[in-house]
Amino acid sequence: MGWVLLILIVVVGLWMVGAYNGLIALKNQTFNAFKQIDVQLKRRHDLIPNLVNAVKGAMDFEKSTLEAVIQARNQAVKVNASGPEAMKQISQAENALSSALSRLMVVVERYPDLKATGNIGQLQEELTSTENKVSFARQLYNDTATQYNTKQQQFPTSLVAGLAKAQPAELWEIEDQAERAVPKVDLTSR
Amino acid sequence: MIGFVVFFAWLGFGGDLIFWLSSRDADPGRYRHVIPWFGLIVTTIAIAVARYAYRTGPQKVLWATGAREVIDPQNDAERQFVNVVDEMAIAAGLPRPRTWVVPDADPNAFATGHDPKDSHVAVTEGLLAICSRDELQAVIGHELGHVKNLDVRLMTTLAALVGAILLMRDGMGRMMRGGGRLGGGGGGGRGGKKGGAGPLIAILLAVWIISWLIAPLVTQLLALAVSRKREYLADAMSAQFTRNPLALASALEKIEHAAAPTAAIKRGAAHLCIADPLGRRLTSQEGWLADRFASHPPMGMRISRLKGMGYAQLKKEGGTPA
User: Fold this and answer.
1) Is residue B246 located within the same domain as residue B274?
2) Which of B26, B91, B230, B283 has a C-alpha 20 to 30 A away from that of A164?
3) Per-residue model confidence as pLDDT tens digits over B146-167
4) How many angstroms separate the CA of residue B80 from the nearest CA in chain A?
5) Would the pTM count as exceeding 0.80?
């Protein structure tokens, strides 16, 4: 009888170690994925001044669009919050920057001359890539965080979640209602 | 890997056993085969080849295809390729692999390396030319899927082994032809000595010779069996990274339509590629034969699975297939 009890305790103990370590690994992966978003955002902030300089000369008439991009960029750089509110603030600023950039891209498309001259094609590729990098970093973070959240809430791993100090990770969402809306396409004019 | 060494141990020690059995009742004073020299030598060679194949596999594969590394991209296509690899590495959560371009007009791509920290992705110039950005992204996603699943280590080692075996078979073929005369001469002298062990020796000898003959085939079958299952998995990983399975479907369609054999990619490395580079007809069929001998699952199956994923996604999002 004592043997059975002993084996049971050993098995449960081994399982707990496994589950605990699994949760810790996922927690660190989630943390790392979050830092990756930061890296990509930083890259984007560094790229924008170059981009604006490249198109500035040819785009005197679109001052407002360019200024919006610069402003959004400076806003995004300034956000240096920490704590539970950090994610919300960062994502708000970054989403504003994303929409300013996409407006700029639309404007560039509108001027075939601008596209034809020199390195705008290259810049466009750079910008597309940067935007993709940011969104893929977010995707990875959301995937990892979802995995982590699911794991810590599922039975029986949920029993160890308290021990591993597992907290549900917040997912990265689109805060800006305007960005979520379906873009209106108007083909009547012109 | 272990199977490879064991197989060669059998080839070597089996030969020793046969030789030992046939020389066991030789006259005292004549040569008796007691120490298994063949086995020791062949097994040592097999271990050395396997080790060598494992360690130099990626360089060998890249060298054999004539790929050149893209460090500082020179034109728009290369810049896009490098960017797309960066993006997909982020999506997969992997360190950035090194990027290579194979100077070949036929569209194809492959990945090689030991582990995610030391991996290489190569595409042909043809692929860069015909694929849109999204399609290229999907293809790279497929290759990084192989990297993330650690397929590359296995497949690269297998590629190097297949190469080594093909070489050895050619060498053996020459030796057998030379050795045939020798064996014929010796057989006459031994004829009278045939004892009770005769049938056993004959059977062993037959099995052993057949083993030698099918050695290249076995290695290749191994490579193929591994490869086909992994292709579906890598397709699914690509869809997970890009969230755009239809892009991979259309890329595969393009690759298939340009089905000229990829001249730069030799037989040994075929199973590394996204599409069978040899342009074999087997790949386009489903069935027993194709199941066993083709290095890739039928393109039609892969495309229809991807489209299935794509339409399921569209349905969930409330859109309609374009």
Assistant:
1) yes
2) B91
3) 898 888 877 777 767 766 666 6
4) 7
5) no
